[in-house]
Design brief:
The protein is an alpha/beta fold and about 375 residues long. Helix content is about 50%, strand content about 10%. The protein contains 13 helices and eight strands. A six-stranded parallel beta sheet has the order 1-8-5-4-2-3, sandwiched between helices. The protein is globular and about 60 Å long. The structure holds fe (ii) ion.
Length: about 375
């Protein structure tokens, strides 16, 4: 059986932030990150829309990039005191991911972080609040997914939490919010989104419905990312759309080891998630190729490679991987990770092997396989 779960409402388009007026409730906790939403005036606008809709608003500000368990617990405490019936999270992946986890501990104070590490083990949410997500980056797609990534800095592990309970009720995707995103962020989050689309397309649980989302996402992202990095309107708009189409797919089938390895690199070396994904993706695609049937032909086609129907298996597989490498290079992401140390390989490989994304990979990767793949980054 396959389950397909999405937010009940997705608003998309310029100015749709205003939809906040129409949320029905009494109190909203608005969770944001480091201040870019405030500086650009979007925070005030969001607060005003919520108030116009008759809500009392409490802010939870300053969620850091790669949010910690401590930040989550502190936010949950504020929520328990304020008792919101809406949690509204606005910003990059981090405040939205943190707010999703806060939601769990707001509704279930007795639950511990360890209790929810196992995928699909969450208690039933929406007993106290519903959740609206408003992204300001074009990559994680957390506004439409069942995932949240929280870091335990004590153990140096990034946990991808997964449960359909944390798929938001409402996603508000307003391209105005991503128009001010710095070029580097656009490149990083864009390659993260491409990695979602390609890993989601080739993951073990993929089926026709999710293939449809992933292939379309690969096409839109490949067509839009260079333009988005060059700050064209078309490019930014395309990425805002392509990234969450990828999200709608992978949220329902999971990812693979490019993500397991990227989570590990992020936790150990602070490598930005999109950079780690971009570096791992072509290496992992080569490794997975013999378990993906004809799918690389479709990836190559979606990425604009011409003449794929005339190509033999080896040629189209190489064409797909090359197209990914070219895109990554064109948006300024290096292929090698300088910080990587040989002596770290055993820990990295063990940690990636234990990551919740690993079982979805089309080919079962052993710790030895993962060690060899990390080596290719040097
Ligand atoms: Fe990702």
């Amino acid at each position: 059986m396959s389950r397909f779960c999405l937010p009940r409402d997705i608003y998309h388009g310029k100015g749709c932030l205003e939809e906040l007026k129409n949320l029905k409730g009494k109190k909203a906790c608005l969770v944001v990150g480091g201040g870019s939403m405030k500086r650009q005036g979007f925070l005030d606008r969001a607060v005003n829309y919520l108030k116009e809709g008759g809500m009392e608003v409490r802010l939870i500000e300053g969620v850091e990039p790669d949010p910690s368990v401590e930040t989550v617990m502190k936010g949950a405490e504020v929520m328990r005191e304020f008792e919101p019936d809406w949690i509204v999270a606005m910003g990059g992946g981090s405040p939205i991911d943190a707010a999703k986890a806060m939601w769990v501990f707001y509704e279930y104070p007795e639950v511990s972080f360890e209790d929810i590490i196992t995928p699909f083990s969450f208690p039933e949410l929406r007993q106290k609040a519903k959740f609206a997500a408003i992204p300001s980056t074009s990559g994680t797609a957390t506004e439409v997914t069942a995932f949240s990534v929280i870091t335990n800095y004590q153990t140096g592990v990034k946990y991808p939490l997964a449960d359909f309970n944390i798929t938001p009720d409402v996603a508000i995707v307003d391209p105005d919010l991503v128009s001010g995103l710095p070029v580097k962020q656009v490149a990083y989050t864009g390659m993260d989104a491409l990695t979602h689309a390609i890993e989601g397309y080739t993951t073990k649980a993929a089926w026709e419905m999710t293939d449809m989302f992933h292939l379309k996402a690969i096409e839109i992202i490949s067509r839009s990312l260079r333009g988005a990095v060059a700050n064209t309107k078309e490019g930014r708009k395309g990425m805002a759309l392509g990234q969450y189409i990828a999200g709608m797919g992978f949220s329902n089938v999971g990812l693979g080891i490019a993500h397991s390895m990227a989570h590990t690199l992020g936790a150990v070396y602070d490598t930005p998630h999109g950079v780690a994904c971009a570096m791992m993706l072509p290496i992992v695609m080569e490794y997975n190729a013999d378990c993906t049937g004809e799918k690389y032909r479709e990836i190559a086609r979606a990425m604009g490679v011409e003449g794929v129907d005339q190509m033999d298996q080896e040629t189209y597989r190489k064409a797909a991987v090359d197209a990914v490498r070219r895109l990554s290079e064109d948006v300024g992401i290096p292929a090698k990770l300088e910080a990587l140390k040989e002596e770290d390989h055993p820990f990295l490989a063990e940690s990636a092997h234990a990551d919740a994304c690993a079982p979805g990979n089309p080919k079962d990767a052993s710790v030895e396989d993962l060690t060899a793949l990390f080596r290719k980054l040097m």
